[in-house]
TrEMBL record, chains A, B:
Pfam families: LacI, Peripla_BP_3. Residues 2-56 form the HTH lacI-type domain. One of its GO terms (molecular function) is transcription cis-regulatory region binding. SUPFAM superfamilies: lambda repressor-like DNA-binding domains, Periplasmic binding protein-like I. CDD domains: HTH_LacI, PBP1_LacI_sugar_binding-like. This is LacI family transcriptional regulator. Signal peptide: none annotated. InterPro entries: HTH_LacI, LacI/GalR-like_sensor, Lambda_DNA-bd_dom_sf, Peripla_BP_I. PROSITE patterns: HTH_LACI_1, HTH_LACI_2. It comes from Streptomyces flaveus. Keywords: DNA-binding, Transcription, Transcription regulation.
Length: 337, 337
DNA sequence: CGACAGAGTCGAAGCGCTTCGACAACCTAT
DNA sequence: ATAGGTTGTCGAAGCGCTTCGACTCTGTCG
């Protein structure tokens, strides 16, 4: 293993000079800099991470806490995680992958040990038990998702309230009056996951304003669960002509079942989905949808975090405005029978 | 920040004693151990990761290199990544998430800096450019996936060759003679990704042995791509009655299209999928499938790696035997017309 | 009863890096 | 010419931990 000292000797300078060449914290003459860089190349030197962390009190690692559960939206989570890892690298950070398993203890462990300089938390609940810890430490953090109380926190999220409103508006504009919402799995609501509840709020309040009837049903996803849910919906609200789907794994089942029941999309029934574009365009009907901007969320989270680490950032809530793309799954409501 | 020295002082012992309590590398009397543990509790002490890494030359971090691309099987990747992170924690390791982006440089960086003690690589190509580096370093590593030459490497994977064979056997046993394989996206084959090619080999050689006609077509996934592919298949081999699908995002499109064409599953056409159980059970037809044991692969990879780190492990290739679960998508071949 | 083996503890020497203060050499403005 | 500033470099002091050798007790065996 090559050390700083060896590089210094090889270049004929002191260790501290090499260090300053590396960090750029003091000015170095052209000649010296080049000689040192040459030696680094030739010896294949890599600074030792542990020593650097110890001496500088900075690990250059960002911890990313992903949810352990798999009842929710896995592809999006993965996309965010990869976006986080990729943008972190461009800022000189590596990413430590923590699962939700340890819960608050993981926060304590990482904070206490100096393993990471900062954290990004995903899968935030409205009243998340990790939040008090984050508020109580001086370690910078960013949430992907929105808790109930954001004071003293930095958050990034799609504006799910506006997303819900947007879906309803689109359907209302097309003349739909009875709208069913196929939501996430019940467990997601039981945990009070921020995005699910906020979407629902947006859907509800805008429906009220527009005078629409809204029926919300959580759904596990998959054909069997969707079949049961759909039957109940039409049982309770036979005039339903608009659907908003938030559970990715319910999308295809819904389309299949509607087809099977002889309800044409979009002639008889319109469907709006909240899902990544890839899902919307690969479904059996090209779906009108509000995209979940996973990449953007990951990138923004890292950038806010880096700003905080560099001392510039401040607490703020960054809500990404939803965009609805009209595709082939929505159309005018059928004439009232 | 609480340090070892403060704990030592609080407990009235020397720093080294506290260290030995923590590591258990020397015997400590009951009384002392309890006093120290008490102090650790009271002060909320967490060992500093950097200092520990520097002194012990062990970071207790495993690097996990995931593919950056998203043209392949994202949910499985995520499941493996989470399984790796979870089992790593049970062995006292944290996981550093590296994307494939940096390629071989990431290996060099991590190895050189002592950031991680070991690596797990996913998305291995048959002739992966990272392999020479792994062979040339003394840093332990495990591949999830199988390259062409496994000498000097430790690998974990589903036995995709046997998987292919198993699928074909199942269909052959039911009397199918003309079988179409809906494969991964073309790009996956162009990269010579191990698992895709091995599955194909298994399918082909067993088909030959059993005297079946096999037609392989890569497919991007999604309805449109699947529609084109399917049309070509029936064009070229009108008597096709058996399908093997390896691309998760082609599964539902295939089922939908077959239905649309009036081909009943499993009466007219049988379908075997290679996919996680969740997909198989949530599809519109409950699919006969060979499961991809993501959890098991992740866990095994970590266990092999930990064994190597502890000095016990040896190079070996661990192939997990495939298991085919019969569900509702396969049945006897229809009588020949 | 003296020698000897553990068991239990401590002190000190690093691990490889960053960073602070010091200093020499040079330049500028009086 | 002199005081004062810049620029570039160095030495040394840690950062918080692990680990080695040394030391002091006990208890045990011939």
């Amino acid at each position: 293993m090559v050390t700083l000292a060896e590089v210094a000797q090889h270049a004929g300078v002191s260790a501290s000079t090499v260090s300053y060449v590396l960090s750029g914290k003091r000015s170095i003459s052209m000649g010296t800099r080049q000689r040192v860089e040459q030696s680094i190349q030739e010896l294949g030197y890599h600074p030792n991470a542990g020593a650097r962390a110890l001496a500088s009190n900075r690990s250059n690692i960002i911890a990313l806490m992903v949810p352990l559960r798999t009842d929710m939206y896995v592809p999006v989570m993965m996309e965010i995680a990869i976006a986080v890892a990729t943008s972190a690298r461009t800022h000189g950070y590596d990413v430590l992958l923590l699962t939700g398993e340890e819960g608050p203890d993981a926060v304590r462990r990482v904070t206490g040990s100096g393993l990471a300089d900062a954290m990004i938390l995903m899968d935030v609940e409205l009243d998340d038990e990790r939040l008090p810890l984050l508020r109580g430490t001086d370690q910078p953090s960013v949430l992907i998702g929105l808790p109930a109380d954001t004071s003293g926190l930095t958050c990034v999220d799609l504006d799910f309230g506006a997303t819900g409103a947007l879906c309803v508006e689109h359907l209302a504009m097309l003349g739909h009056r009875d709208i069913a919402v196929i939501g996430e799995a019940p467990a997601v609501y039981e945990r009070h996951t921020g995005f699910a509840e906020r979407t629902l709020d947006g859907l509800r309040s805008r429906s009220r304003e527009l005078g629409l009837r809204l029926l919300h049903r959580p759904c596990e996803g998959g054909y069997d669960a969707m079949a049961v849910t759909l039957a109940r919906v039409f049982d309770e609200r036979p005039d339903t002509t608009g659907f908003v789907v938030q559970n990715e794994s319910a999308v295809e089942p819904l389309l299949g079942l509607l087809r099977q029941q002889g309800r044409a999309v979009p002639e008889d029934v319109s469907v709006v989905a909240v899902c990544p574009d890839q899902v919307a365009t690969q479904a059996s009907v090209r779906l009108t949808s509000v995209a979940i901007p996973a990449q953007e969320m990951g990138r923004n989270a890292v950038e806010l975090l880096v700003a905080k680490l560099d001392g510039g950032g401040t607490d703020e809530v960054l809500l990404i405005a939803p965009e609805l793309t009209t595709r082939a799954s929505t159309g005018p409501a059928p004439a009232t029978s």
